[in-house]
Design brief:
The chain folds into two domains: 2-75, 434 Repressor (Amino-terminal Domain), CATH 1.10.260.40; 79-162, no CATH class. The termini are far apart. It has helices at residues 2-20, 25-31, 36-44, 51-61, 65-70, 77-104, 107-110, 119-134, 136-152, 154-162. By secondary structure, it is mostly helical. Helix 1 crosses helix 3 (36-44), helix 2 packs across helix 3 (36-44) and helix 8 crosses helix 9. It contains ten helices and no strands.
Length: 166
């Protein structure tokens, strides 16, 4: 039953690709190097496309395999690449902000409660930064909380930012 549902999903996505290319089923079969009955079974969700067909969709039509196989992300790699590049740019900006914050904050002198910032917490912070660089929604949610904290604790923030570099 699960395989049938999986085949139906890839069949529907194959149909979407064909319609976006404005091709008939026979024309799509020819472009993919398939017989008409084989293509029909693929699009109907009765069978799964063979490896050469999947590779051709990826190479010749820029179809994202995450989208085609699992329905995840965008249909085309080019859109996914653009999204990844935007996330990487945002991540670089965050890294620069983090480095600037590290330079301006003297943990030892002005924030004694963080002196015991042990290995476990450092690992958690690294994990958080990794997730923030990959999940835009997480980044924005945390930034909302960060800005709210800054507004509500302005005195503490001013003290930590005015601390000399160690």
């Amino acid at each position: 039953m699960a395989a049938q549902t999986y085949f139906e999903g890839t069949g529907k996505r194959l149909s979407i690709i064909r319609r976006q290319l404005e091709l008939s089923r026979k024309d799509m079969a020819n472009r993919l190097g398939l017989s008409w009955p084989a293509y029909y079974k693929n699009e109907a969700g009765e069978t799964f496309p063979r490896q050469s067909t999947v590779i051709r969709l990826e190479k010749e039509y820029d179809i994202s395999m995450d989208w085609f196989m699992f329905g995840k992300g965008g249909m085309y790699y080019s859109k996914e690449r653009a999204r990844v590049q935007a996330l990487e740019k945002e991540s670089e900006s965050l890294k620069k902000e983090l480095e600037a914050a590290r330079e301006n904050l003297s943990v030892k002198e002005k924030a004694p409660e963080l002196k015991g910032f042990g290995v476990e917490r450092k690992v958690e912070v690294k994990e958080l930064l990794d997730h923030m660089s990959r999940i835009t929604l997480l980044y924005h949610e945390l930034m909302v909380h960060f800005h709210r904290f800054k507004m509500e604790n302005r005195d503490l923030v001013d003290i930590s930012m005015s601390a000399p570099k160690s």
